[in-house]
Amino acid sequence: YIWNGVTFTAAGMNTATLLDANGCDSTVIMTLNVNPSYAISLTTGICESELPYIWNGVTFTAAGTQSVTLQTVNGCDSVVTMTLTVNPTYAVTDVRSVCPGELPYSWNGVTFTAAGTQTVTLQTANGCDSVVTMILTVNQTHVTTDSRTVCESELPYIWNGVTFTAAGMNTATLQDANGCDSTVIMTLNVNPAYATSLTTGICESELPYTWNGVTFTAAGTQNVTLQTVNGCDSVVTMVLTVNTPAHQAYTVESCDAYTWTDGDGQTHTVSGDYTYSHQDSHGCTQVDTLHLTIHNSTASEFSVEWEEETPYEWNGQPYTESGDYVQTLQTADGCDSVVTLHLTITVGIDGHDMAAICLAPNPTNRLCRIMGLENVPVSVELFDMRGKLVLRDGDTELDVSMLPSGMYTVRVNTGDRVIHLKLVKQ
């Protein structure tokens, strides 16, 4: 393509310097576009009655494909291929239903005054003749009853444009499934709302207590809105009481054994703390504690050789004959103490001057000396008033500072005689 002395061999851009109307140089930029030639396919459908079909000088006598060379709008050669389809005519049956209020019913220029069958010649979507047969049915109108139940909170209740402000009956004209008028009679039932109070007691160990999504951390009252079996709101008030078990503590001192009849029912022989878990009148777990001290009964014995002419007196009881004697006393804890006395009565034994033997000082609170037996080997035993041996020594000087106050019997054995003296510890 030659332009102002510039040759284009393809689409593109070139520049030429020309003179404008004033004789001045003017630079012109040329952009050349090259239109291609085309190969186009067309598809056309005709009715069977339109054969033979002429297209751009080409005649179709049936469906098929033919080509022709034409010029584009740009004047370029274009090969166009036509594919022709031939649409047949049809015989169609249509079935429709109408409501009685739609009679008389017009269809494609045909009027139905009742249900029936009629035929008309129409054109298809392709513009071809089609014979259509219409079968028309007429639907009946209906009278229907309906019943619904709502909550009191849903009033006023609107149904198909009808407003209920209370339970009752109303009528509405609706369309049935066929689009025809249908009279519906509605009966509306209204369920009432409720306000209920509940009272529940729990054990302290059950806190926090969850009820219908509400959590109690202590006794109190809370409200929750629930739904009744009818799906209506119901305000329920819960009054929660919390039962605290009474934890009983018992302090007991017993001799030898103790049976906890008000607790675990067991007999305990060892001091210690015992617990008993049980349910109180509210069904809560109550833990009782027994602080038990067991004092053991004692059994002891001692021997006495009595050489005085007067009876031997033991705890207010005089004894004049040798023998074994038993007394049941009580310890300081109030428990039985069985003491056996092995008594030997001896009269007229020679030896030291009994009148010269004594304890000094007497009473005493610390040291006591046996006077009159200096330089004599002795064995000394000290008994309390219950006959329990509390001290044994081989010296004539006794230290009683660790003993409790009271009356004691001092038994002095010199080897050839036994001497009994009375000592008072302050």
Write the layout of secondary structure elements.
Elements: E1 2-3, E2 6-7, E3 12-19, E4 25-32, E5 38-47, E6 53-55, E7 58-60, E8 64-71, E9 77-87, E10 90-98, E11 105-107, E12 110-112, E13 116-123, E14 129-138, E15 142-151, E16 157-159, E17 162-164, E18 168-175, E19 181-191, E20 194-203, E21 209-211, E22 214-216, E23 220-227, E24 233-243, E25 249-255, E26 258-259, E27 267-268, E28 272-279, E29 285-295, E30 298-306, E31 312-314, E32 317-319, E33 323-330, E34 336-345, E35 358-360, E36 367-371, E37 379-384, E38 389-393, E39 397-399, E40 406-413, E41 418-425
Parallel strand pairs: 5-9, 10-14, 15-19, 20-24, 25-29, 30-34
Antiparallel strand pairs: 1-2, 3-4, 6-7, 8-9, 11-12, 13-14, 16-17, 18-19, 21-22, 23-24, 26-27, 28-29, 31-32, 33-34, 35-36, 36-39, 37-38, 37-40, 40-41
Helix content: under 10%
Number of strands: 41
Strand content range: over 45%
- What is the topology, as strand order, of the major beta sheet? 38-37-40-41
Structure classification: mainly beta
Radius of gyration: 66 Å
- Low-pLDDT segments, ≥5 res: 348-352
Describe the global form.
Answer: elongated
Q: What count of helical segments does DSSP give?
A: 0
Largest sheet: 4 strands, antiparallel
